[in-house]
């Protein structure tokens, strides 16, 4: 089969690799019909190279049809399924707590990490990913989400990651109808986090430097601002001078905008070119994130408010403004999205003919799998108004 493979920093290629096969009774093999490039895939492309190996198959936002199912699953050939990005058993202590990303059965204990993820480096199990023609799905007795045949793929595809991640970001903001919330970054997660908060009756502000992304959010009733100090002041003015009740950081480790971010960027890139035996310990112990978005969130949120982190962070030596966090009595919430914990709430919205979350207004580029290398570069450079890329293997 063909698959998108990591080959080095800022380099992916489509290669022919062995087809996946059933290895355990609760496995399934899915023929992929749509698979998306996620913002966190760019972290592999740009920053997390020390934890990748040439030839690793990437991607964790797939859906398709079952072509083979193990006897311990309730799937059958032909079932249309969405595959969540994390691999969870559904029956351990953490899964029963709704914390599927901490699944005890699939935890990558040798790395000190939570549940295995598809296509996301050896930190999360080095499991072959979903930007491919076929995907082996472990724990298919629990993970795959069965969906109907009536609607196009894009109505369901983002149940794999984007929608649950955005939903959790809003849930972790701990706000209610009538409250105010700001979203920093209007990439894929920020777009849906803003729309979900708006759908739940909140006043939503968003900060984003790219005009195309601001325009998309504005079509859904989001109050949008450029990435400037004036924008922070304007949002504070609009919230009685206090700042919004909560802020969602939908940017993460590769934010731009301050000197610390510039230093961290240099450190991130430098680590990639060290020998493997050196690069991983450097990232493990001394890795720094670019924290411009988080610093903006700390400045912007009102006293006693909440900052919800949905952007991925990976540094172990990132400096936090602890005095300000403590003084402002800010609550910090964060974590990988627990997909199956939120699907039952989201599924009726993506199937609603009225499309209340605007799923039909999200995908900006649809490309064949062979064009993945160019798509990664375009997405990373924010060219051609690129917000969300869907690859179609067939």
From TrEMBL:
Span of domain Alcohol dehydrogenase-like N-terminal: 24-143
Keyword DNA repair on entry: no
Pfam family, one: ADH_zinc_N
InterPro entries (alphabetical): ADH-like_C (IPR013149), ADH-like_N (IPR013154), GroES-like_sf (IPR011032), NAD(P)-bd_dom_sf (IPR036291)
Molecular-function GO term, any one: metal ion binding
UniProt keyword annotations, A-Z: Metal-binding, Zinc
Protein name (record): Alcohol dehydrogenase catalytic domain-containing protein
The species this protein was found in: Nesterenkonia sedimenti
Cofactor(s) the record lists: Zn(2+)
């Amino acid at each position: 089969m063909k698959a998108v493979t990591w080959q080095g920093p800022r380099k992916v290629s489509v290669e022919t690799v062995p087809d996946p096969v059933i290895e355990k009774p609760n496995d399934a093999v899915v023929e992929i019909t749509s698979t998306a490039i996620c913002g966190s895939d760019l972290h592999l492309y740009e920053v997390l190279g020390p934890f990748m190996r040439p030839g690793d198959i990437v991607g964790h936002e797939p859906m398709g049809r079952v072509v083979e199912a193990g006897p311990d699953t309730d799937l059958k050939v032909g079932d249309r399924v969405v595959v969540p990005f994390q691999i969870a058993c559904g029956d351990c202590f953490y899964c029963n707590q709704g914390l599927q990303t901490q699944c005890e059965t699939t935890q990558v204990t040798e790395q000190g990490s939570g549940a295995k993820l598809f296509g996301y480096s050896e930190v999360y199990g080095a499991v072959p990913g979903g930007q491919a023609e076929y995907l082996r799905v472990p724990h298919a007795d629990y993970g795959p989400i069965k969906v109907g045949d009536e609607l196009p793929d894009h109505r369901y595809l983002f149940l794999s990651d984007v929608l649950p991640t955005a939903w959790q970001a809003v849930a972790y903001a701990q706000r209610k109808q009538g409250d105010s919330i700001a979203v920093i970054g209007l990439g894929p997660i920020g777009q849906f986090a803003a729309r979900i908060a708006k759908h739940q009756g909140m006043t939503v502000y968003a900060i984003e430097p790219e005009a195309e992304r601001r325009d998309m959010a504005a079509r859904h009733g989001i109050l949008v601002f450029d990435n400037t100090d004036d924008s922070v002041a304007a949002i504070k003015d609009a919230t009685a001078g206090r700042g919004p009740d909560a802020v969602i950081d939908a940017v993460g480790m590769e934010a731009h905008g301050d000197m610390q971010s510039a230093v961290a960027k240099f450190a991130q890139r430098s680590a990639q070119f060290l020998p493997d035996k050196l690069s991983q310990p450097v990232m493990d112990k001394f890795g720094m994130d670019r924290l411009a978005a988080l610093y903006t969130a700390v400045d912007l949120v009102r006293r006693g408010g909440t900052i919800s982190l949905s952007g991925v962070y990976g540094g172990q030596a990132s400096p936090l403004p602890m005095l300000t966090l403590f003084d402002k009595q800010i609550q910090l919430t964060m974590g990988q999205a627990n997909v199956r914990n939120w699907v039952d709430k989201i599924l009726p919205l993506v199937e609603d003919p009225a499309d209340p979350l605007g799923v039909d207004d999200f995908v900006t580029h649809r490309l064949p799998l062979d064009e993945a290398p160019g798509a990664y570069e375009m997405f990373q450079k924010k060219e051609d108004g690129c917000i969300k890329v869907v690859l179609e293997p067939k």
